[in-house]
Amino acid sequence: MKIYRITDEEFKQFGKVVNIDTAEIVSVGEKSPLPENGTAYTASFDAFEGLAIKEPLQDEYFGQLPVQMGYCRGHNNKMNALEWHKCSEINIAVTDIILLLGDVRDVEADNRYDAAKVKAFKVCKGEAVEVYATTLHYCPIQCADTGFGCVVVLPVGTNTALDKKPDDPLIIAKNKWLIAHEDNEALKANGAVATIYGENYTF
Q1: pLDDT tens digits for range 89-133
Q2: Within 13 Å and on the Cβ side, how many CA atoms surround 99?
Q3: What CA–CA distance (Å, rounded) separates 40 from 21?
Q4: Which domains does the chain have, with CATH numbers?
Q5: Sign of the alpha-carbon dihedral angle for 131, 111, 199, 72
Q6: Helix, strand, coil % over all residues of the chain, rounded to 5
Q7: Whether pTM exceeds 0.90
């Protein structure tokens, strides 16, 4: 699978580069807990919330809506699923990472999605990107055996537990729609709709 850079023309469909000083939050993010196995997501990480970077991101990329600053950390080398939100997401690479991205408009009427439409983009340590609301994405892929780290900035409440069961089976958390790959037994066991077909990319 070809791995593009976020500076390539192909990325413009999915997001844009955020030009902001990330040195402080990357330094703090390097100290966030790293699971020995698997991955961990925290919607709001206290050590991030008071940093100077929060206000400009909140004002300029979320139109002054309150945001939460969390992280995704761990070990991952497989696509497994794709999710989307009804808003943009800011990702800041704490380590080099690969983002697997698609377009929600390519999801078929029966919620099926062809994995062949996914593209891979490398985000180097310290780089920040805005991932559009129309962009399918999921857990970053590691670029080294030591694992990966990524800061995740979203409107407050996103990815937190639902208050009630929605009619739409793709909604698995607040402001979070997800489809799993047909081969991912763990997500299917947790009730995820498994409608991604084709290759479950492994790196």
Answers
A1: 999 999 999 999 999 999 999 999 999 999 999 999 999 999 999
A2: 33
A3: 25
A4: 3-197 (2.60.120.10)
A5: positive
A6: 15, 35, 45
A7: yes
